[in-house]
């Protein structure tokens, strides 16, 4: 349990390197990442959403997420679990992201 929590914290820090190029804010502070889990077989599942359906940056974000998480020795594969519930809103953004975007 402690290992899973430590991995999640490290993974979330790594995902702060994935920046939405349209907003210039990382996906963690935008509130797009809902959960990160690692199973015993090395499968890292990222549960996330997007700001809008049909986001043109989906492929870019998936590739960037995969690149960041595959940098962990214990990760053999990354799976993106894209969800629409709960729906994303500006309320999911961190205080820093809101200040940076002037929201």
TrEMBL record:
MIP18 family-like domain location: 8-79
InterPro entries: Fe-S_Maturation_MIP18, FSCA_dom_sf, MIP18-like
Classification via Pfam families: FeS_assembly_P
Name of the featured protein: Aromatic ring hydroxylating protein
Organism name: Lentilactobacillus diolivorans
